[in-house]
Amino acid sequence: MKCNILPARNGELWITKGFAMVRRDPVPILLAVLGALACGLLLGLIPFLGALLVTILGPVFQTGVCSVYRALEQKRRASMDDFFLPAKTRLPQLLSLGAIYFVFCLVVFLMAGGIFLLLAWEDIQKLVGLAGTQVDNLDPEALRTFLESIKAQGQDVGPEIVEIVMSITVAFLWGLLVFFLLMCPVFMAYWFAPLLVAWNQLSLFRAFVFSFFAILKNWRAVLVYSLLWLVIGFVGGIVLGIFQVILLLLLPRLLAMLVIYLLLLPITIALFALGIAGIYFGYKDVFSTAPEAKEKAEEAW
User: Fold this and answer.
1) What is the pLDDT, as a whole number, of residue 104?
2) Which runs of E-coded beta strand occur in the chain?
3) Could you tell me the pLDDT band of residue 297, with boundaries at 50, 70 and 90?
4) Global confidence as pTM
5) Do residues 59 and 194 touch, judged by C-beta distance below 8 A?
6) Chain-centre distance of CA 104, in angstroms?
7) Are the C-beta atoms of 243 and 223 separated by less than 8 Å?
C-alpha cells in the first residue's frame, strides 16, 4: 500500500474540493451530515455514557458521510445505503476503533489534568483556605459559602487572591499545552484510520500506523489545511460576533438569540460537511495510486 507525499498546496485543495462538492450536490451531503449530527446530539444527552457512545460511533458516522462523498464523486446517486454501507461490512472494527480512540483521549486528558493538579494543588488549597474551607470537604454548599466569603472579604484578600488565581491560570495553561502536545499523535493516528479500516480492510493497529505515518509524511499539506481552518474559524467568529451585536441592538434579546441559533444550525452542518470532505479528499490524495495525485510515492509501512 502506497503513501503519496503531497505538496503543501494540497491542503488548500482539500477544502476547495469539499466546498465544490457540497455546492454541487448539497442535498444528499447535508442530509447525511444532519443525520450524523442528530444521532450524535441525541446520544450526547444520555447521562454519563453520552460522550463515550458518541466517540465510539464517531468512525461509523465519519465513514458513512465519506461513503456519500465517494458515491457522488463516482457520479452515482447517493442514498442511505451508501451511508450505512461501512456499518454493514465493518461495524465491529469501527466500534473498536472508536473505543480505542476514546481510551487514548481519556488517558491524555487524565495526564494533562494530573499535570495541572500537580502544579496548582498548593495554590488551590491556599485559595480555599482563604475562605476557611478545607478542600477535602469541598461540596456544592461549601463552594457557595466559599464564593460568598470571597465576595465579603473583597478588599482584605483581593491582591492575594489575584496572585493565587494567576498562578492557577498559569498551571492550567501548562496543562492545556501538555494536552494538545499529547493529542497531536493521537489525532495523527486517528485521522485516516476509520477509512483505512472500512475501505482498505486494514486491522486496527495497521490503520493507526498507516494514518500516523501518512500525516507525518504529508505534514506540509496537513499544516496548510489546519491553518486555513484556523483562519476560517477566526474570521467566521469575528463576523458572527459582529452580526450578533447588531442583532442584539436591533431586536429584542430573546428574538435576537433565536435568530442567531437558527443561523448557527446550517453553519454548523456546512462546516461539519466541509471537515469530513477534507478528510475524504485527503485520504483519496494520500492513498491514491493515480500518478496525477502524487508528487512521489514511498512505502508507509
Assistant:
1) 95
2) 2-5, 296-299
3) very low
4) 0.81
5) yes
6) 14
7) no
